[in-house]
Design goal:
Elements (H helix, E strand, L loop, with lengths): L1 H32 L8 E7 L18 H9 L1 E7 L4 H10 L24 E2 L14 H7 L3 E6 L17 E3 L15 E2 L8 E2 L12 H15 L5 E6 L11 H8 L11 H23 L6 E7 L7 E2 L2 E2 L15 H4 E7 L8 E3 L3 E2 L2 H9 L18 H5 L10 E5 L9 E6 L2 E6 L5 E5 L15 H18 L5 E2 L9
Parallel strand pairs: 1-8, 1-9, 2-13, 2-14, 4-5, 4-8
Antiparallel strand pairs: 2-12, 3-19, 6-7, 9-12, 10-11, 15-16, 16-17, 17-18
Amino acid sequence: MRVACALIFGRQARVAAALAGALLLLCCSTARLHGEEPRRPNVVLILADDLGWADLACYGADLHETPHLDRLARQGMRFTNAYSASVCSPTRASLMTGKHYARLHMTTWYEASQSPPRDRRLIPPVTVGNLPHRELTIAKRAQRAGYLTALVGKWHLGDAAYYPETHGFDINIGGTFWGAPYSYFFPYRGSGRFEGEFRYVPHLEGGRSGEYLTDRLTDEALRIIDTAGDRPFFLYLAHHAVHTPIEAKADLVKHYEAKLTDGLRHKNAKYAAMVHSLDESVGRVMDRLEENHLADHTLVIFLSDNGGHIGQFDALNCTNNSPLRSGKGSLYEGGVRVPLIVRYPGTTSPASVCHEPVFCADWHSTIAEVAGLTDVPAPAAPLDGQSLVPLLKKPDATLSREALFFHYPHYYPTTTPASAVRAGDWKLIEYLEDGRAELYNLRQDPSEQHDLAAERPAKTAELRDMLHGWRTRTAVQMPTPNPHFRTERP
């Protein structure tokens, strides 16, 4: 009976996808017959902050409830091997430019870019904090093609002279150089955290006591959808959730506290409540697209900027990325593998799953192809990302690239400076303090528990050479030895 139902569902899904594609083609053909150019599709890019690969129910979360994102996955395509940088600003830079964050020399977050620590074995490089204006962002390309472009939420790619308005966004609501809000509750400002610095989220005036940041950013996003009119729009909804501070609505916290039992991997009720609000935001956006008859003509992308943060807030671990190892900052899978769900009717098949490794830099070229931006000048070569449209059409397709590369020449609670490469099922991590390498077969060992470097010296040497060659070609920044560091203290 289950097999029969699955076959019926599969046939219905394929028929629905075919009908949607035919309808879209008919609309385009009709527009051409009347001498009109078909309207370009809308693009909604929803980026979560610090959301782990295993934080959604459709990725195996055991405490968190994410019905709207689960529905989005049933309507579209879920990726199991999507990758980002290990921290926030680098991923955002790659999303915007299509270039590897290491090529841009944007390997750490904005606030840390200019002041590396000098009390460790290596001195991390001073990196680029402001996304250079010479870089042609996907927003600027869309803007030149007539799109209404809007950033709602977190920017984190430079100071006021490099804010979203200077990179192709018509609208900027909330975007600053800061990486986290002081509070998730109105008025979203204060100075009790972040070394006493006063922080605020601009353009969110007129709120009320108890108003929640994730909800308010969603309100602003819905207004943009409602007011776009006949213009196609590129909406970049960059939530602060679920980044610290871990704050959530009291009723949701109580709901998840009541669910806590022994044996759960996820144990933080406040964090679960933050995920819940994030999920509700996605549901509200999808509902508004449906209400405005835009859902079938909109590419929706949901992903996270890095792996889940496994550090503590208020004496509780934020999340648990198991079965993946470690978390934010690390180049283990828990730090760089992220959830990714894509819905584009007529292209993605309902309930499809793609296992091909993809990277955050791929979205510039993907959006450009979907939006038909071939008539708009492209960024200066080389681009490191590839269009994922072949995968959206056929999830078992493959991309023609050698490998994925990662570079974090900095210190974080989960790691010392390191680089990594994933080629097929194999992954090598090289630690830059001493050149030590670890080798894993991700198909057999996705939790990275069995280091095979000593057992497979030839494969280790092959991937190390590949990694070193990429670092040279890409002109990445490397840390330097600290001449004043002493392993033994007097």
